[in-house]
Amino acid sequence: MSPNAEKIADWLLAGLELKSTLFHVGQYCGAWQASTAGHQQASFHVVLHGECWLHLPAKPGREASSVHLNQGDAVFLLHDMPHCLSPSPVAPSTGQESARAGAMQPLTSAESLPQQSLGLACGFFEFRSGLDDQLLALIPDHIVARQDSAVLDGPRAVFDLIRAEAHRHPETPSPLIARLTELLFFYALRSVAARDDIAPGLWSLMRRAEFAPLITAIIDTPAKRWTTDSMAEFVHMSRARFCKQFMEACGQPPAQFVTLVRMKVAAAMLRAGTPTPDAAELVGYQSESAFAQAFKRVTGEQPGAYRKNRAQDQADPVH
After folding, report:
1. Which of 98, 173, 177, 188 is CA-nearest to residue 140?
2. What homologous superfamily does CATH list for 17-192?
3. Distance between terminal CA atoms of the chain?
4. Is the CATH number 3.30.700.30 carried by domain 208-313?
5. By three-state DSSP, how is residue 44 classified?
6. Are 151 and 65 spatial neighbours (Cβ–Cβ below 8 Å)?
7. For 18-39, b where at least 16 C-beta lie within 10 A, e where not — what string?
8. CA 289/CA 224 separation, integer angstroms
9. Which pTM does this prediction carry?
10. Rounded distance, CA 166 to CA 280, Å?
11. Model confidence over 302-318: pLDDT tens digits?
12. Span 135-151, mean pLDDT?
């Protein structure tokens, strides 16, 4: 990954307001089919032991797929979507993709795992801010994180901790599993940036040599007057060519993307206690009311309420 791309990836990850909750931890044996679909939430599955298949039905722009998963692999579904896990490489019939079959049993000790069993930790993600939702809309709707393909040892170490916590008290799963899965999710997002088969969005944009320096410059100087003409000039393109190629790579117009970047920068300032007028000016708004309207449109909250709520979260004791 280029230095620009790595910087953009870390910038995206910083400040994501993510909270995960554990749904269940256990193991399946025999014939079974598991899914977290239908709960109107993003979700995850971490394979603690064994192997299985992830089945995703076709949707506009994507063919149906079945993906083999092994111990240590994790699946992150960034919104509620039809899917299932099963021991069979054959996908379920149409309309049955999110059906459930079989009963999850408590985990047995790591030394006495039944043959052909699958251990799973499953749960849900909540992204508190509409800003997070819009940023995540720029990346693939699901991520398969492979333990054996990690460039660094971080993801493997996190999985080892998750597995140890899962077997520590099988009857009452540790709440630390959810926190550790959040960390695994961040590693998974970073790994997407190194992939070659990236769908249109932020990741594909920052992989383009002509666009990555521009995105870095917008992040570094959000108060600058980033017009379509000035951005086209920055990348040495005509306005028409720039708009066409930017849309093809990112999936949204340049001006909309600049607003999204500015609101993310402003959100970080507000969380740190910066007054609204100062945050507005630092991201290029001379009018506080115009900034407030843009901020609410992107995040769903007024700047003052956003800052107050985040300050309260930091003040609340952790249980």
Report:
1. 188
2. Jelly Rolls (2.60.120.10)
3. 38
4. no
5. strand
6. no
7. bebebbebbbbbeebbbbbbee
8. 19
9. 0.72
10. 45
11. 999 998 888 766 655 44
12. 72
